[in-house]
């Protein structure tokens, strides 16, 4: 069975990367959720996609120049807040696995430390997490910090590059854009033992076509469409 993974929560239904969106994804019965992280000016990991708050909130400015208390005053769709990564972990509470995408700079170390805290102090396991990134250096830092953390290489350009990085990093999975898949590169990835999770697939015809392949997961804004 192809696993259903909620993109930024359930972005198609509730504003992205909010606790409410992650709760919606749980309500829709996802196997996993995907989210994006940055480090804000006061040092906490916050769950947010863009490098500036302008598109999604009623404020303006760069995420890494604003403190957590400043970010918490901002409103998303009039009423929702930017959550910290720890708040999302606590909400999910092992009801599904979590794909943390290292979006911002210098996110590897604090993400590793938070995952380690949940594994060593709260009874979670490393199987509760996948850490992915388009940034090879952040993945390298994660691998160097803790070899037990499962890595996925993101790519919107080529599956070959995702595979090359995955080999170098001893990754667990590749996360290519769904349009890059071919029978040949799926076969190659599977031969090498990688899981394949693709993004962001929202249309029924694409989902049906992909479900016929031997891929492992589909990241969707509408995870109930799987
Ligand atoms: O992790 C998959 C996907 O979310 C990567 O693209 O721009 O949605 O973060 P983006
Ligand atoms: Ca993402």
Written overview of the protein:
GO terms for molecular function: phosphoric diester hydrolase activity. This is Glycerophosphoryl diester phosphodiesterase family protein. The chain is of the alpha/beta class and 226 residues long. The chain has one domain (3-50, 84-225): Phosphatidylinositol (PI) phosphodiesterase (TIM Barrel, Alpha-Beta Barrel), CATH 3.20.20.190. Helices cover 33% and strands 19% of the residues. It is built from eight helices and nine strands. The protein has helices spanning 19-27, 68-73, 85-92, 108-121, 136-145, 159-169, 183-191, 204-211, and strands at residues 3-7, 32-39, 45-47, 97-102, 129-133, 151-155, 173-176, 195-198, 217-220. The protein has an eight-stranded parallel beta barrel, surrounded by six helices. Helix 8 links the parallel strand 8 (195-198) and strand 9 (217-220). Helix 4 runs parallel beside helix 5 (136-145). The model has no long low-confidence stretch (mean pLDDT 98). The chain binds SN-glycerol-3-phosphate (G3P) and calcium ion (CA).
């Amino acid at each position: 069975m192809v696993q259903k993974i909620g993109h930024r929560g359930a972005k198609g239904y509730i504003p992205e990367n909010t606790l409410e969106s992650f709760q919606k994804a749980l309500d829709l019965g996802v196997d996993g959720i995907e989210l994006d992280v940055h480090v804000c000016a006061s040092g906490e990991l916050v769950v947010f996609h863009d490098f500036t708050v302008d598109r999604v909130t009623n404020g303006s400015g760069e995420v890494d120049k604003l403190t957590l208390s400043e970010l918490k005053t901002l409103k998303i769709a009039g009423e929702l807040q930017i959550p910290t990564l720890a708040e999302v972990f606590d909400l999910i509470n092992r009801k599904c696995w979590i794909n943390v995408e290292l979006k911002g700079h210098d996110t590897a170390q604090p993400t590793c430390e938070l995952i380690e805290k949940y594994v060593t102090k709260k009874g979670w396991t490393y199987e509760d997490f996948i850490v992915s990134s388009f940034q090879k250096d952040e993945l390298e830092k994660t691998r160097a910090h803790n070899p037990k953390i499962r890595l996925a290489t993101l790519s919107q350009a080529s599956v070959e590059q995702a595979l090359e990085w995955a080999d170098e990093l001893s990754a667990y999975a590749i996360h290519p854009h769904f349009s890059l898949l071919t029978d040949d590169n799926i076969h190659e990835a599977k031969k090498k033992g990688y899981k394949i999770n693709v993004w962001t697939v929202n249309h029924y015809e694409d989902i049906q076509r992909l479900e016929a392949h031997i891929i492992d997961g589909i990241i969707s804004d509408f995870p109930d469409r799987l």
